[in-house]
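Assess this:
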Amino acid sequence: MKKGILLFLLWPFAFYSQADHAEAQFYNWFDNLIGIKHTNLFNGRQYIDTDVNKIFEQRHAFFLSEKAQIGTILYSGQTYFDIPMKYNLETDHVIVSLKSNNTTSLLELINDNIKSFSIKGFRFEKLDTTHIDQSTIKGFYEVMLTQPEFSLYKKNRKNRKERFEDLGRSKIYYEFIADNSYVLFYQNTYRDIASRNDILNIFPKKQKEIKLFFKENKSQRKTDYDTFLKELFSRIIHDSNSEKNL
């Protein structure tokens, strides 16, 4: 009897043609069936925002928005879809907003239990390794570009800065300033991408093309550095390697 009921409940999912969509639908159905409170996602510590009403001109510490955005997260070996979440770039923590009955809880998830997550189409992976110089790489990195021969990552980070309301310094406000960095995984090694010379040193045979790209795209480099880097690595580095392998 129980088996028949389970098959009946699962029946709607048999007709989805897209595997990813079907998986998301199934896990959402399952989480709703047993209650999100009874899943591993309800495993973290209560989050309290101590900076409420102290942020200067909306320059908050979070990725994209200080409000929760719908995302997906791989936590304790299970994928959770359509989860309201936000990512604190100062502390490198993910906060989820979970409803149980009529109560909404804000939980700061345990970093060791997170393998990856995505927010508004931006995908992040947890890295725990070393650079080519043996310095540590640890935390969540945005996956900007992935190709067979390399992967390009971005470390989104914000640093806290104090501001005072008046000359009497009677009230403190905070603004969070972006301090991003970039890492390339190439030839089984992680390397910092902090300047043009870093790229030239990694790809000495492509110096002419790289220098020309920098020269022709000065404006984009200043206004949209992420797109600049993605186009450089997809058009100059990846395409040239692909042509060489033909």
Observations:
- The chain has a mean pLDDT of 83.
